[in-house]
Write a structure and sequence with these properties.
This protein is mainly β. The chain is about 10% helix and about 35% strand. It has one domain: Beta Barrel (Cyclophilin), CATH 2.40.100. The chain has three helices and 14 strands.
Length: about 220
Amino acid sequence: MRISRNHFFRRGERAASFRVEQCDKHFETSLGTFTAQLEWKLVPKTVENFIGLAQGTKEWKDPKTGQMIKGRPFYDGLIFHRVVNGTLIQSGDPTGEGMGGPGYVIPDEFSPQLPHDRSGMLSMGNRGPNSGGSQFFVTLTALPELNRVHSAFGQVIRGMDVVRKIASVKTKNEKPVTPVLLKSVRIEVVPFVVCQPESPLIDDGLCDLCAHLLPAL
Protein backbone atom coordinates (compact mmCIF):
# COMPACT_ATOMS: atom_id res chain seq x y z
CA MET A 1 0.00 0.00 0.00
CA ARG A 2 1.32 3.43 -0.97
CA ILE A 3 -0.19 6.53 0.60
CA SER A 4 0.22 10.02 -0.81
CA ARG A 5 -1.93 11.89 1.70
CA ASN A 6 -0.05 14.14 4.16
CA HIS A 7 -0.77 14.13 7.90
CA PHE A 8 0.46 16.36 10.69
CA PHE A 9 1.19 15.78 14.34
CA ARG A 10 2.26 18.20 17.09
CA ARG A 11 4.17 16.81 20.06
CA GLY A 12 5.79 18.92 22.78
CA GLU A 13 7.58 21.80 21.07
CA ARG A 14 8.00 19.97 17.80
CA ALA A 15 5.62 19.79 14.91
CA ALA A 16 6.22 17.16 12.28
CA SER A 17 4.56 16.44 9.00
CA PHE A 18 5.06 13.08 7.41
CA ARG A 19 3.72 10.97 4.62
CA VAL A 20 3.39 7.29 5.45
CA GLU A 21 4.66 5.22 2.53
CA GLN A 22 3.85 1.84 4.06
CA CYS A 23 2.78 0.48 7.44
CA ASP A 24 3.45 -3.17 8.29
CA LYS A 25 2.72 -5.15 11.42
CA HIS A 26 4.94 -8.07 12.43
CA PHE A 27 3.26 -10.73 14.57
CA GLU A 28 5.84 -12.82 16.42
CA THR A 29 4.23 -16.02 17.67
CA SER A 30 5.49 -19.16 19.36
CA LEU A 31 5.23 -20.90 15.98
CA GLY A 32 6.93 -18.24 13.87
CA THR A 33 6.38 -14.72 12.53
CA PHE A 34 3.92 -13.41 9.98
CA THR A 35 3.60 -9.88 8.62
CA ALA A 36 0.47 -7.96 7.64
CA GLN A 37 0.25 -4.75 5.65
CA LEU A 38 -2.21 -2.36 7.33
CA GLU A 39 -4.65 -0.55 5.06
CA TRP A 40 -4.34 2.76 6.85
CA LYS A 41 -5.82 4.94 4.15
CA LEU A 42 -8.94 2.82 3.69
CA VAL A 43 -9.90 2.28 7.36
CA PRO A 44 -7.85 4.81 9.39
CA LYS A 45 -9.79 4.62 12.67
CA THR A 46 -9.54 0.83 12.86
CA VAL A 47 -5.82 0.92 12.13
CA GLU A 48 -5.29 3.77 14.62
CA ASN A 49 -6.93 1.72 17.37
CA PHE A 50 -4.92 -1.41 16.54
CA ILE A 51 -1.58 0.40 16.40
CA GLY A 52 -2.32 2.32 19.59
CA LEU A 53 -2.97 -0.90 21.50
CA ALA A 54 0.09 -2.60 20.00
CA GLN A 55 2.37 0.35 20.82
CA GLY A 56 0.95 0.90 24.29
CA THR A 57 0.03 4.48 23.41
CA LYS A 58 -3.69 3.82 23.76
CA GLU A 59 -5.25 3.29 27.17
CA TRP A 60 -6.90 -0.07 27.90
CA LYS A 61 -8.51 -1.77 30.87
CA ASP A 62 -6.77 -4.66 32.62
CA PRO A 63 -9.47 -7.34 33.06
CA LYS A 64 -7.77 -8.75 36.16
CA THR A 65 -7.37 -5.51 38.15
CA GLY A 66 -9.93 -3.25 36.50
CA GLN A 67 -7.25 -0.56 36.22
CA MET A 68 -6.68 1.52 33.10
CA ILE A 69 -3.26 0.85 31.57
CA LYS A 70 -1.19 3.05 29.27
CA GLY A 71 2.41 2.64 28.20
CA ARG A 72 2.27 -1.16 28.07
CA PRO A 73 1.68 -2.99 24.79
CA PHE A 74 -1.69 -4.69 24.87
CA TYR A 75 -1.09 -7.68 22.60
CA ASP A 76 2.24 -8.99 23.87
CA GLY A 77 1.84 -12.35 25.60
CA LEU A 78 -1.75 -13.06 24.58
CA ILE A 79 -2.78 -16.39 23.06
CA PHE A 80 -4.61 -17.43 19.92
CA HIS A 81 -7.79 -18.40 21.72
CA ARG A 82 -9.74 -19.55 18.66
CA VAL A 83 -8.46 -21.69 15.80
CA VAL A 84 -10.63 -23.16 13.06
CA ASN A 85 -8.47 -25.09 10.62
CA GLY A 86 -9.07 -24.00 7.05
CA THR A 87 -11.12 -20.99 8.18
CA LEU A 88 -9.40 -18.57 10.59
CA ILE A 89 -7.13 -17.97 13.58
CA GLN A 90 -8.12 -15.41 16.23
CA SER A 91 -6.37 -13.53 19.05
CA GLY A 92 -6.58 -10.24 20.93
CA ASP A 93 -8.54 -11.29 24.03
CA PRO A 94 -6.69 -10.54 27.30
CA THR A 95 -8.78 -13.15 29.12
CA GLY A 96 -8.01 -15.85 26.56
CA GLU A 97 -11.63 -17.01 26.56
CA GLY A 98 -13.03 -15.17 23.55
CA MET A 99 -15.21 -12.61 25.32
CA GLY A 100 -12.63 -10.07 26.50
CA GLY A 101 -11.42 -6.77 25.07
CA PRO A 102 -9.70 -3.48 25.91
CA GLY A 103 -12.52 -2.09 28.03
CA TYR A 104 -14.12 -0.08 25.24
CA VAL A 105 -15.61 -0.61 21.78
CA ILE A 106 -15.01 1.07 18.44
CA PRO A 107 -17.41 1.65 15.54
CA ASP A 108 -17.35 -0.57 12.47
CA GLU A 109 -15.40 0.77 9.51
CA PHE A 110 -15.91 -0.91 6.15
CA SER A 111 -14.21 -0.47 2.80
CA PRO A 112 -15.44 -2.08 -0.44
CA GLN A 113 -11.76 -2.42 -1.35
CA LEU A 114 -11.22 -4.84 1.56
CA PRO A 115 -13.55 -7.81 1.02
CA HIS A 116 -13.04 -11.11 2.81
CA ASP A 117 -12.39 -12.78 -0.53
CA ARG A 118 -9.12 -14.61 0.07
CA SER A 119 -6.85 -16.14 2.68
CA GLY A 120 -4.68 -13.80 4.73
CA MET A 121 -7.22 -11.05 5.34
CA LEU A 122 -6.74 -9.32 8.72
CA SER A 123 -10.04 -8.32 10.28
CA MET A 124 -11.62 -7.25 13.57
CA GLY A 125 -13.57 -9.66 15.74
CA ASN A 126 -16.83 -8.46 17.26
CA ARG A 127 -20.01 -9.55 19.01
CA GLY A 128 -22.32 -7.58 16.72
CA PRO A 129 -22.48 -4.14 15.10
CA ASN A 130 -20.03 -1.56 16.49
CA SER A 131 -18.69 -3.87 19.20
CA GLY A 132 -15.07 -4.42 18.11
CA GLY A 133 -12.18 -3.47 20.32
CA SER A 134 -9.02 -5.55 20.27
CA GLN A 135 -9.82 -9.03 18.96
CA PHE A 136 -8.71 -9.79 15.44
CA PHE A 137 -8.57 -12.76 13.11
CA VAL A 138 -6.74 -13.87 9.98
CA THR A 139 -8.66 -15.78 7.31
CA LEU A 140 -7.50 -19.01 5.68
CA THR A 141 -10.12 -18.95 2.93
CA ALA A 142 -12.63 -16.60 1.33
CA LEU A 143 -15.39 -15.69 3.82
CA PRO A 144 -17.71 -13.33 1.89
CA GLU A 145 -20.42 -13.67 4.54
CA LEU A 146 -18.21 -11.51 6.79
CA ASN A 147 -18.27 -8.52 4.43
CA ARG A 148 -19.84 -5.48 6.13
CA VAL A 149 -20.05 -7.54 9.32
CA HIS A 150 -16.39 -7.49 10.37
CA SER A 151 -13.98 -4.62 9.67
CA ALA A 152 -11.10 -5.83 7.50
CA PHE A 153 -8.05 -3.61 7.90
CA GLY A 154 -5.07 -5.41 6.37
CA GLN A 155 -3.70 -8.50 4.73
CA VAL A 156 -0.85 -10.90 5.36
CA ILE A 157 2.04 -10.26 2.95
CA ARG A 158 4.60 -12.66 4.47
CA GLY A 159 4.35 -15.77 6.61
CA MET A 160 1.10 -17.42 5.53
CA ASP A 161 2.89 -20.70 6.21
CA VAL A 162 3.01 -19.64 9.87
CA VAL A 163 -0.71 -18.78 9.82
CA ARG A 164 -1.45 -22.23 8.39
CA LYS A 165 0.81 -23.85 10.99
CA ILE A 166 -1.16 -22.14 13.77
CA ALA A 167 -4.41 -23.22 12.14
CA SER A 168 -3.31 -26.85 12.06
CA VAL A 169 -2.62 -27.28 15.80
CA LYS A 170 -4.73 -29.70 17.81
CA THR A 171 -7.77 -28.01 19.32
CA LYS A 172 -10.63 -28.69 21.70
CA ASN A 173 -13.78 -26.62 21.15
CA GLU A 174 -11.78 -24.45 18.70
CA LYS A 175 -9.15 -23.61 21.34
CA PRO A 176 -5.58 -24.91 20.96
CA VAL A 177 -4.78 -27.71 23.40
CA THR A 178 -1.23 -26.36 23.62
CA PRO A 179 -1.36 -22.54 23.79
CA VAL A 180 -0.02 -20.64 20.80
CA LEU A 181 1.45 -17.38 22.08
CA LEU A 182 1.43 -13.99 20.42
CA LYS A 183 4.83 -13.01 21.79
CA SER A 184 4.94 -9.49 20.41
CA VAL A 185 3.50 -7.21 17.77
CA ARG A 186 5.90 -4.76 16.13
CA ILE A 187 4.98 -1.85 13.89
CA GLU A 188 7.21 -0.94 10.96
CA VAL A 189 6.56 2.40 9.27
CA VAL A 190 8.26 3.63 6.12
CA PRO A 191 7.82 7.42 6.38
CA PHE A 192 8.77 10.63 4.70
CA VAL A 193 9.27 13.09 7.57
CA VAL A 194 9.66 16.88 7.66
CA CYS A 195 10.19 18.41 11.11
CA GLN A 196 9.05 21.95 11.80
CA PRO A 197 10.40 22.83 15.28
CA GLU A 198 9.22 26.45 15.14
CA SER A 199 5.59 25.59 14.49
CA PRO A 200 3.07 26.41 17.25
CA LEU A 201 2.21 23.72 19.76
CA ILE A 202 -1.13 21.96 19.42
CA ASP A 203 -1.72 19.79 22.47
CA ASP A 204 -4.07 17.17 21.13
CA GLY A 205 -2.52 16.87 17.67
CA LEU A 206 -4.17 16.98 14.30
CA CYS A 207 -4.21 13.27 13.69
CA ASP A 208 -4.73 10.54 16.30
CA LEU A 209 -3.16 7.93 14.07
CA CYS A 210 0.05 9.94 13.73
CA ALA A 211 0.35 10.09 17.52
CA HIS A 212 0.47 6.30 17.62
CA LEU A 213 2.68 5.97 14.56
CA LEU A 214 5.35 8.42 15.70
CA PRO A 215 6.98 6.03 18.24
CA ALA A 216 7.47 3.53 15.42
CA LEU A 217 9.43 5.92 13.20
